Structure formats: structure tokens, C-alpha cells
């Protein structure tokens, strides 16, 4: 049986000695002798020097009790950001992503993406209610392309992203399209209720 048996159920755990490795691999162990290592003086100075830290473990930032954290970690990091506190439905979706799913699961990241999209939709609605709606046309970049051959630059140019350009307006403006659909449905209901009277 050779030393290279990674595919058997219980491979032998024989670790070769330094002499065997040095004989088999040219240059193996060349940095074992500190006299041959140019970094040894620097490393020894760094080992002797104090780091200047006044703690063994950094003190925990206040407010860690309700913070979201990955289920892989035992506790929240000593310092964390508080600029964007979780609130509303997007915050509940983010808390669910952190409480239920590992960071290695697709569901964790998809829930975070859904929460971001909900956050964007919420802000668009609240901005519109405050009298500062999004500038839908100018934010899509359509106005910037006027006069710069917008169709010719996409068709027949060999661009690899032309397939998804049809979907880009839908992805960027799905909130507005959903709101428009809701207004149309509400108007139809009102019209039907008036006709039935």
C-alpha cells in the first residue's frame, strides 16, 4: 500500500520523519535552522515587543443582546455597526435569515436579498408619500443614452449582456409596476361597485 491512500475508508496516519522528507523532497526543511532564516531577527523583536493592548479580550460594545449574528458564532463580535438598525418587515426577514439558517445555506442569502428588495420598496413608497418620489426615467439611465445610439450599441455588437437588458427595467422598477397594478385593481373595484348600485 502506498503513502497516497486518500480514498480508502480508514487511511493509515503515518507521518514521515524530517529525515525522510528531506531525502524525498529537495529543499524541504530549509528554514528549520534559525541561522538560515532572514526573518528570525524581525520575528524575535516582534515577539518581545508589547502590542500595546490593555486587554486580553476586548470589551463588548453595549447593545449586543438584540443584535443579529450568524448561528456559526457563539457571540456577537466585540464591535459592530449600528448605523442601520433593523426595522419593519425587512428587519424581520433579516432576523429570520440569521436565526434559522447558516451562512453556508442559500436560504440565508436569498432571505437577505429579499429583505433588501423589501427595504427598497418600502423606501420608495415612503419617499413618494413624503412628496419626494424617485425619478424613474433618469435613474434608469435611459435619458443618458439618448443620442448615443442606444439600439445600435446593443444589437449586433457582440455584447454578452444583451439578453438580460429586456429584464433590467422590470428588475429596477418592479415596485412601481406593482404599485401601478394595485392602483389599476383598486380602480376596477371602485368602478364595479358603482355599476352594481
Write the layout of secondary structure elements.
Elements: H1 18-24, H2 40-48, H3 88-100, H4 106-129, H5 136-140, H6 142-145, H7 168-196
Helix pairs in contact: 3-4
Can you describe this structure?
There is one protein chain. The chain has 197 residues and is mainly alpha-helical. Helix content is 46%, strand content 0%. The chain has helices spanning 18-24, 40-48, 88-100, 106-129, 136-140, 142-145, 168-196. The chain is elongated and about 95 Å long.
Features:
elongated, mainly alpha, 197 residues
Number of strand segments = 0
Low-confidence stretches: 1-5
Output the radius of gyration.
31 Å
Number of helices: 7
Largest sheet: none
Helix/sheet category: mainly alpha
Quaternary status: single chain
The portion of residues assigned to helices is 40-55%
- H-E string: HHHHHHH
Q: Give average pLDDT, whole number.
A: 79
- Terminal residue distance: 91 Å
β-sheet strand percentage: under 5%
| Rough outline | elongated
Short description:
With 197 residues, the protein is an all-alpha fold. The chain contains 7 helices and no strands.
Amino acid at each position: 500500500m502506498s503513502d497516497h491512500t486518500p480514498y480508502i475508508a480508514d487511511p493509515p496516519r503515518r507521518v514521515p520523519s524530517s529525515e525522510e522528507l528531506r531525502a524525498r523532497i529537495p529543499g524541504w526543511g530549509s528554514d528549520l535552522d534559525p541561522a538560515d532564516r532572514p526573518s528570525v531577527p524581525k520575528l524575535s523583536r516582534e515577539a518581545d515587543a508589547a502590542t500595546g493592548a490593555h486587554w486580553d479580550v476586548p470589551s463588548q460594545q453595549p447593545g449586543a443582546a438584540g443584535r443579529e449574528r450568524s448561528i456559526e458564532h457563539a457571540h456577537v463580535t466585540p464591535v459592530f455597526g449600528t448605523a442601520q438598525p433593523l426595522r419593519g418587515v425587512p428587519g424581520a426577514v433579516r432576523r429570520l435569515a440569521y436565526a434559522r439558517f447558516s451562512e453556508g445555506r442559500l436560504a440565508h442569502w436569498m432571505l437577505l436579498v429579499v429583505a433588501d428588495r423589501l427595504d427598497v420598496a418600502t423606501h420608495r413608497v415612503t419617499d413618494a408619500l413624503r412628496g419626494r418620489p424617485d425619478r424613474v426615467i433618469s435613474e434608469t439611465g435611459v435619458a443618458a443614452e439618448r443620442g448615443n445610439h442606444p439600439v445600435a450599441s446593443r444589437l449586433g455588437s457582440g455584447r454578452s449582456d444583451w439578453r438580460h437588458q429586456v429584464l433590467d427595467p422590470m428588475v429596477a422598477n418592479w415596485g412601481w409596476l406593482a404599485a401601478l397594478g394595485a392602483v389599476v385593481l383598486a380602480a376596477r373595484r371602485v368602478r364595479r361597485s358603482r355599476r352594481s348600485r
